Amino acid sequence: MENYPKEFPAKSQNRQPGIENEMNPAPVYEYKEYKGADKLKGKTALITGGDSGIGRAVAVAYAKEGANVAIVYFDENGDAEDTKKRVEEEGVKCLLISGDVGEEDFCNEAVEKTVEEFGRLDILVNNAGEQHPKESIKDITSEQLHRTFKTNFYSQFYLTKKAIDYMKPGSAIINTTSINPYTGNPQLIDYTATKGAINGFTRSMAQALVNDGIRVNAVAPGPIWTPLIPATFSEETVASFGQDTPMGRAGQPVEHVGCYVLLASDESSYMTGQTLHVNGGRFVTT
């Protein structure tokens, strides 16, 4: 097993969703020894938040499995270009699409650009997110509430609504939720609410699309070392991030790729409406 860090330098970033190239240590997004087995050969995946963090890890893993990848991101151009370069080193194609996933018109455009470029859409990974900790619900403004829901939940609604126009039987939708709706989080009340909405959306869409042969599942990360962490929390919080898990450390983006590859491939053909938990050993009830 890799010797992943248990402590991080006390450092923060002043904007969301954060820049991976500025992180120390850099998140681990790839198992160098991972060899693809053509599980996604010839397929096309659209991944939001695919420029960094979990999205980057998934994009690289999908490329190793033979999929072309469209990466949707906000404005982190450097991170996006780095991810594109790594994806294309696997001999597949990568399309970068920059914009605000909280806007329905942009979500529609992203799906249409993906289909125009690759001729198909087989996998949708709804992964983009933002969070803004507050000490009290009274500190959460209407603006923040709407912004967090637009990025985290509305984007998944809009992209799914458009994507199913092009998805065929055997396609897969994978939504990134969180450990927080299972445990609660008093400093991330609005964020946690969006993730609870995603859970309900995942289960409802799984039933709504089952007769179309489209599977809908979710992955629920725990504390993971991504650009969102130094862009969210204080330096002191970052320094001890993830140490309260049973494994005593934060997870790395690469530790999710098994779940996302499984749920995108035919190996999970009898799974829909499910959530896979990657949280360092915390027990949750579903």
What report would you give on this structure?
This protein has eight helices and seven strands, in the order βαβαβαβαβααβααβ. It has 286 residues and is α/β, with parallel strands linked by helices. It has a seven-stranded parallel sheet with strand order 3-2-1-4-5-6-7, with helices on both faces. The longest helix is centred in the middle third of the chain and has 22 residues, at 142-163. It starts with 43 loop residues before the first strand and ends in an 8-residue tail after the last strand. The model has no long low-confidence stretch (mean pLDDT 94).
Chain-wise SSE layout:
Blueprint: E1 44-48, H1 53-64, E2 68-73, H2 77-88, E3 94-98, H3 104-118, E4 123-126, H4 142-163, E5 172-176, H5 180-183, H6 189-209, E6 215-221, H7 235-239, H8 257-264, E7 275-278
Parallel strand pairs: 1-2, 1-4, 2-3, 4-5, 5-6, 6-7
